[in-house]
Amino acid sequence: MEQLNRLKSKSEPTLTVLIFVTIAIGIVSGLAGMFLALLLHHIQHVAYGYSHTLAHPENFLQGVSASSIQRRIFVLTFCGFLAGFGWWAIYRYGKPLISIANAIKSDKPHMPIGTTILNALLQIITVALGSPLGREVAPREVGSAFACWLCAKTGLSTKDSQIMVACGSGAGLAAVYNVPLGGVVFILEILLCTLSWSAVIPALCTCSIATAVSWIGLGNAPQYHIPNYPLSASLILWSILVGPIFGVAAFRFHQITTAARQSAPRNWRVLILCILNFIVIGLLSVYFPQLLGNGKGPIQLGFTDDLGVDLAIRLLILRVLIVWSSLQVGAQGGLLTPSLANGVLLAIALGGVWSIAWPGTHAGAFAVVGAAAFLGAAQKMPITAIVLTAEFTGINFNFLVPILFAVTGSVSTFRFYANRQANINPNQRISIP
């Protein structure tokens, strides 16, 4: 009896601590996601002069398009200087950055809070100024860094700490994009690779809390607004046939971006190369303002049937090039929204060809399916990509059928090429960045 009481006395505080840590991570991740998103919007408005009110209906693409050519080039030049100097200073004077994946694998999860926050702020600021990389890594890193610190302070076990660090990452994603279920699936499918109750329960709690907290400043509207597109036999057959094409494209994109990250400079060269890279992007924005930012503008245009095939092909080629070049020169950022954008642009191009033989399907319908197919393969997260696409757009339930077909084809093809590469060159195995 005494032994049972001792076990209870030991387990009860642990459960109390777990509940406290779970709630705290959800709240802090939500606040971090909200703050970083508001900071991004404010910098965009100030940089391109289209509004000083965060609730202004004019979006980033409209603001960039309305700004002068000189302003775009100046802002991108400043972005290059800030990116180069900022990351050079972090590499030179900051503590070594630890990725979320490596922190989760560690027996004692740790991420340097100061350096991680500075890295996250640099990502948000440069994306706001026009960097083509994604913003989702920043809130994920802040959430995970806080989780590492809190778990160390509360003395959680290694297993519980690893789960909480993953939850901090997923909760940050959920907060910044208003995707609570997507954040949960991301934690379970990508970061922890488990469906155990010990992971599912805190994942559900942290992502729900973080999303609700972010609503205070960001609202609860979906990221993208799309018309109510009808489902057709043409779209379903197209999704079956083009899935492998998205898989091949995603595999090549993953290859070049991974290689670019690995070979990016960490010394004084990052300053010079970043300035040159972003000046070129600024010059390109004179003719293609849709290139600036993480890709949300082209995605919205594609989803609403406002993007032609010719422009989509040009933007696809240019966006792949500038995402690759930005990573190659040492800039940091995510690839979630850039991957979505690639999928949308490729889908509009392929859908345009398909419509010659079988007209009647909206380009926006192709875009929704293509976005999920490319994202699922390029980031090796098929289930997460499907859930994210549904939450991003609020699509009808029956639209999941063509999405499932396309994602199946793209991910299977990606896996085929990844396995073939591993057999040819074992030193170049595909892994999650």
UniProtKB/TrEMBL annotation:
Bilayer disposition of the protein: Multi-pass membrane protein
Transmembrane segments: 15-40, 73-91, 111-130, 163-188, 195-217, 229-249, 270-288, 339-357, 363-387, 399-418
One cellular component term from this protein's GO annotations in UniProt: chloride channel complex
GO MF annotation: an example: chloride channel activity
Signal peptide: none
Keyword Calcium: no
Keywords: Chloride, Chloride channel, Ion channel, Ion transport, Membrane, Transmembrane, Transmembrane helix, Transport
Entry-linked InterPro entries: Cl-channel_core (IPR014743), ClC (IPR001807), ClC-type_chloride_channel (IPR050368)
Protein's UniProt keywords contain Lipid metabolism: no
Subcellular location: Membrane
Top-level division of the source organism's lineage: Bacteria
Name of this chain's protein: Chloride channel protein
Organism: Legionella maceachernii
